[in-house]
Amino acid sequence: VATCSLNQWALDFEGNLERILESICIAKEKGATLRVGPELEITGYGCFDHFLEGDTYLHSWEMLGKILQNEETRNILLDIGMPVAHKNVKYNCRVIIFNGKVLLIRPKLFLANDGNYRELRYFSAWAPARYVEEFHLPRIIRDITGQSTVPIGDAVISTIDTCVGVEMCEELFTPNSPNISMGLDGVEIITNSSGSHHELRKLYRRVEMIKEATLKNGGVYLYSNQQGCDGDRLYYDGCALIAVNGQIVAQGSQFSLKDVEVVTATIDIEDVRSYRCISSRGMQAVNTPKYQRIEVPMALSQLQINKKILIRPTKPTKEFYHTPEQEITLGPACWLWDYLRRSKTSGYFLPLSGGIDSCATATIVHSMCRLIVEAAENGDTKVINDARRIAGETKNSDYIPKDPREFANRIFHTCYMGTENSSKETRERAKNLADAIGSYHIDFNMDDIVTSMQALFNLVTNKVPKFRVHGGSNVENLALQNIQSRLRMVLSYLFAQLMPWVRNRDGSLLVLGSANVDECLRGYLTKYDCSSADINPIGSISKKDLCRFITYARDEFNIPILDGFLTAIPTAELEPITHDYVQGDEADMGMTYDELSTFGKLRKIERCGPFSMFSKLVHDWGAELNPTQVAEKVKKFFFYYSTNRHKMTTLTPSYHAEAYSPDDNRFDLRPFLYNATWSWQFKKVDSLAKEFENED
């Protein structure tokens, strides 16, 4: 049997078809008689509102027609994903085909509609369970298959030697998953087609649920997932799996530059039947409602296998997990590569400040370059051809990226934009990092431009704003900082557009942002400053995880100068440095990065408002802080979070990696105009804090 991870791209019908056919060919070459692909693989999962358009359904049928007609798709049972409209209702479906015939259209029963998912916006859930009716095929398919109607609904496929059922992504995560009733009704092989995105520390939960699906009930479970960036903030992290009786027997990569990866295993179906010989299971099975079985005149088992003594069932293997530091090293790097090659631009531009956030972004780009060189060394022609095009070497058919630093110098541009408030230390750190990773680095001071802006303001208003350390108000101080920040954004786009021209190359560069998830949550950034970019690989990663990543990269990539970033105090360097004042991020914010992570998780993951957040933290932090101190921290967080929430409406599209991301696009939907006093909520917090104090 075979499952796969495909790097599909939303609405890239021809490219998606090519990858589907390649996966089928590989599966057949490996001897598989059943192949399952990712969810909505014909269209790509991330089409969003394009799923409301008739064209999307028409082109899906056209691609399925090409699959049905292709000789390479013969003699293998295929589970293909596409959207289907039935009686003017749209469904997320699997289409099961064999030898040029459609056997079954199986719609999704339980739709994903939380977090990043909005399937109910486009599709309806099929109901009730086990209900099947006739679907009238479109003319383009009738002409190919000679069929007028086929079954649509919650049915299973019965071959000569076994029974195959379908489960789709979210259905695995529901309390009463379809695999339970299918297994009890004698289904021995269950396929799961997913569009599941990467999130730090999430893979373990997915793998455990796949194992659990066959641990109690027995059976074979084939998990397929999309892999890569298909045009959005998400990175689908592959990791195709095959489980038998609660044990993993085959596992694909979680992060890869490959467009097609096929995972196969040899299964002895008698192992499933033996595993299910449990009296209590039989008691439940005889009372389980039956599924309609769609008969197909083929056998998944091959007689020649039994005659070859060297062919044996695939043995169980220990599942593999990356550490969170490795996930940050690989996931955003693969996402950046997909975005770069598919956007047809010439590289990346990064404002490199000398702080740990932009350092992390630069290090991720370095990781991307390392992955490209590794893929080129392994002969990946798709990666090599993309690298040639992006590096401007299309006329040089012999160019192959062999050194990450050399390749980075072609496609990665960094820039230190200093002012009189910048320190020698940050400038040196930026330069040393650029040297270490090989980026094309430029360095300049922009004081003249800042002064021009201030002079213009003075000319118009006859007022001269001052920094706080020079006697200015908070309003003046903030405005003078924001001038510097916003000018850096303007200059970033100027240089990103013209640097390829300066170097006698075509195209333009994508600007990278470097605001982390905690700063976004708190709003500790200037609207339309360098946080405003084309994309941001770290926008959903916490400061703590970024520090751990830099520690890992220092040793893994042998970049000792990263130590300097780890020990430096985080600072925006937007205010003048004096003998008794140096600007620091945590002092500016009035809270630590660790506290911000805690607030973020309670707000989003545990769905806490001010009162319930205080009610939890007063116990968690009670050993270090009294109730009034905890209340003040909670109120301060919610005040700044709500005051700055409007900044999330213009947040740069960021790689999604953290479950408490404040991304306003669709993951974290909140108002952006709050009553920042939270008057009743804060009164309740103060009242409870006072009760706790009186108890003491």
From TrEMBL:
SUPFAM superfamilies linked: Adenine nucleotide alpha hydrolases-like, Carbon-nitrogen hydrolase
CDD domains the record matches: GAT_Gln-NAD-synth (cd07570), NAD_synthase (cd00553)
GO molecular function per UniProt: ATP binding; glutaminase activity; NAD+ synthase (glutamine-hydrolyzing) activity
Assigned EC number: 6.3.5.1
GO CC terms: cytoplasm
Pfam families in the cross-refs: CN_hydrolase, NAD_synthase
Biological process (GO), any one: NAD+ biosynthetic process
HAMAP family: NadE_glutamine_dep
Protein name, as recorded: NAD(+) synthase (glutamine-hydrolyzing)
Organism for this UniProt entry: Funneliformis mosseae
